Structure formats: structure tokens, C-alpha cells
Amino acid sequence: MKTIRIAKGYNLQLGGRPSTEVESLPEPARLALLPEHIPFIKPRLLVAVGQTVRQGTPLIEDKRNASVRFLSPGGGRIAEINFGHRRVIQEIVIERDAQEQAVAFESIAESELETFPRKRLIEAILAGGLWPLIRQLPFRDYAQMELEPPMIIVGLGSLEPFQPLPEVYLAGKESLFEYGLTALKRLAPQVHVCAPDSGDSLPDRLSSLVSLHYSGPYPAHDPGVILYRVKKSPEENRAWYIAGQDVLLLAHLLKTGTYPTERDIVLAGPSATTRKHFRTRLGVPLADITAGRREEGDIRHIEGGVLSGFVGSDQTYLGFYESAVNLLPEGNRKGELLGLFRPGYRRPSYSRTFISKLNKNDLVYDCNIHGGDRACIACGYCAQVCPVDILPQFAYKSILAGEVEESLEHGLLDCVECGLCSYVCPSKIELAETLHRARVNYYIEQSK
Ligand code: SF4
Ligand code: SF4
């Protein structure tokens, strides 16, 4: 077994860690698909308000590749289709009915799986709406099914506050997980199951499946960071990856022929009054998770991890890729998600000049941006924390100067969008956001 040790990065001392307790929530009355949260797709609507759908009915397809479809997480009636700016489809809301019906897809017996033709396996995953769970580095769009990747990275656990724990979501589902890994091995010559070095909380049966351990601060768990450390040639840059819990969804679809809907979610963060795992469904309303479990007042709802998630509210739903709701005090002034973290006493800080660096207790974060923009002071903090050895301040300057080639030379494509450079920058320069936008533009240009 290989262990990779990653020195660079930074652990946020965020209060509000979830426990391993699991509570099953009642079935939600409504569910939704949020196309807006799915990167790069150009959705074409396949349903209309009032239409009856089954669990597994296609709701949208991607105009770039119509075989990639996103399916209904429940059976019932399309209650709402909400559009945003420029008619971007934000939400497709399904009102569940009591006799929820499900579409039947092809199922594959365990005995057949090891020799099942790769092309037919891909077709089965596409038909069952779960192909987008497999994503491709470095841009993190869904995987290009016409190519064979050098490897698939399966990530168990996350160092970003806060995400479901593998010892919770995999408990009792070891066989299903093994089935899912067998399916993935039909798609790529190598499948690496990655877990933290301290992963002694996993039962022996799951530990034996782990092929690569990582250690280090956030974001050592990130598939892009792991690939950066293990790759032997540039051809390996287009590796695929999938989250551990999503392997279970994939396995459920292929084994049973029904679209899976169960999802373990964590509710966490300093403003959550109950912090634990909840067993519920894909596309659940956030209010079903947070009602009666949050502090009063102005609270920011983050769907997903604190550094990479979406800002939501208790009126929204959980997206296709999200499995966490983190609640933080809003701070009563407007702020940006990646501007959450600003220095000062009792506030988290990277700079050694701030007293909170010495505070070993979990800190309470809020969403104030604490002041306006300042110039780069060449402190080098952004480069010190970057887990893939980019010099973010130079990449940033190249992007602003329109020097794309130069930003690529500075490692733009290796960026894993962890947000740390923005977090540590004492001048509050939007490094991570600027690199993210440049990567998206570059990818879209290359895909034309
Ligand atoms: S440049 Fe990218 S990978 Fe490096 S710290 Fe910034 S966001 Fe993270
Ligand atoms: S952390 Fe901010 S101020 Fe310091 S070198 Fe990087 S960009 Fe400049």
C-alpha cells in the first residue's frame, strides 16, 4: 500500500464538527434537480410543469452530448420549473405522490460484472442518469466516455469542513461498494481507492480495499492533489474520479436496475444546533434538514463544503453533487463565499501576526469581508499553502495581463480550486476566483 504525504495546505479550525450519529428523515414531500449547480452542462428541458414523472424519468439532457441525462429523483408531478438570469434553469421541483413509481433500467448480476462489455456498461450508466458522477480532471466536467482514462480515483472522506464520513455512509454497504469498484475496474486499467492515513475508523473489510493513503492538511484528500503526487506522465492528467458515496449510487443502479435516491447528508457548522448525519434523499429540501436544528438569526446556508460549496437558503434544495449543509453566522453584512475568513481576534487567520493563529480551539467564522481590497504585499502566503506548487500571485497577474500561456506555465491547469490562496491572502485578493474563471474560460475555448 502506498502512502503519499502532502506537506502544503492548511487545516481550517472551524467549529461545528458533525458526530457519527445517523438519523433517518421522513420522506420529503418535494424533491428537486438543480441544473444550475452542475458545472459546464447546457441543459435542454425534457419535461413541463404539470407532467407526471417516475423516479428515473429524464428531466434534462446536456445539449453538448444528449446521451448525458439527469433523471428525476422522485415520482410524482412536476410542480415548478424555476428560471434565473437569462432563462438559466435553476430548479425542477417534483411533488411526490404516494404511489411513487420508478423506471426500470438494465440490471447486471454480480457474476456477469467482471466480464461485462465496457461499452454496454457505459450505456447502462448513461441510461440510468449517473454518468456525471464520474468526473474528469483537470477541469472536473463529467468524464469523456469515448476515452479510456489512465486511472479512476475513488475518494473516501474529505478534509474540507464538513462532509459525510466514510465509516458512516459505507457502514453495512461493504458488498455494494465492492460491486461498484468491480464496475469501475471495467472502465479503467487502474482504480485507486484513497483514504486518509488515519483511516483506522474503517472496518477491516473496507480498509483492505484502500490502495492509497494520504496524509497532510486540507486539501490532501482532493483527487487533483493526489493525481499531482502520483502521476508519472502528463498523459495521466485526464484521470477520472468519483466520490466514495457516489460509488454506492452507481452500484445500486447497476445491481437493481432502479435509479438510486438515498443520500447521507451532514448538517454541521457553528450555527447548526444539531450536528450529525441524516439519511435522506437526493434533491431534498434544505428546510427538511435544518428546521429546528439551527440557531435563530441571519444564518448562511452552504450546500457542500465551506470553501467550495454553494450559498443556498432554507427555501432551496440539495444539488446532484452535494451531501452537506454547513451553517455559518452571516455576520450582518454582505460577503462573498470565499471571503468568509478574515483575520482578527477570535477570528480564524493564517498570518502569524494575528493572535487567533495561537488559538487552538475551534473558531467561529462569519461571512463578513472586513474591509476593502488592498494591493499584494508579496508575503508569499498563497504560494506557501498551495498544495500543487503554483505561485498563485504570479498566475493571477498573468491572467489579469491576458497572458494565458504564461498562466499555464505557472500551473493554472494543476489548480484544484481549493480556495486556500484566497483564504490566506492578507490583501483579500480574489486569487482562487480569478484562477477558477480563467480555467473555465480556457476549458470552454478548448472544447469548441
Ligand atoms: S492556486 Fe489553486 S490549488 Fe493553489 S491554493 Fe489557490 S485555489 Fe488552491
Ligand atoms: S497572499 Fe496575497 S498579498 Fe501575499 S503574495 Fe499572495 S497575493 Fe500577494
Characteristics of this structure?
alpha/beta; Fumarate Reductase Iron-sulfur Protein, Chain B, domain 2; 2 domains; six-stranded mixed sheet; 13 helices; 20 strands; 21% strand; globular; binds iron/sulfur cluster
Summarize the structure.
The protein has 448 residues and is an alpha/beta fold.
Q: Could you please describe the fold and organization of this structure?
A:
By secondary structure, the protein is an alpha/beta fold. The protein folds into two domains: 1-25 and 111-330, no CATH class; 337-447, Fumarate Reductase Iron-sulfur Protein, Chain B, domain 2 (Orthogonal Bundle), CATH 1.10.1060. 23% of the residues lie in helices and 21% in strands. The protein has 13 helices and 20 strands. Strands 1-14-13-12-15-10-11 form a seven-stranded mixed β-sheet. Strands 2-17-16-20-18-19 form a six-stranded mixed β-sheet. A four-stranded antiparallel β-sheet has the order 3-9-8-5, with no helix packed on it. Helix 4 (174-185) packs across helix 7. The longest helix has 17 residues, at 431-447. One iron/sulfur cluster binds at residues 376-382, 393, 424-427, 429, 431.
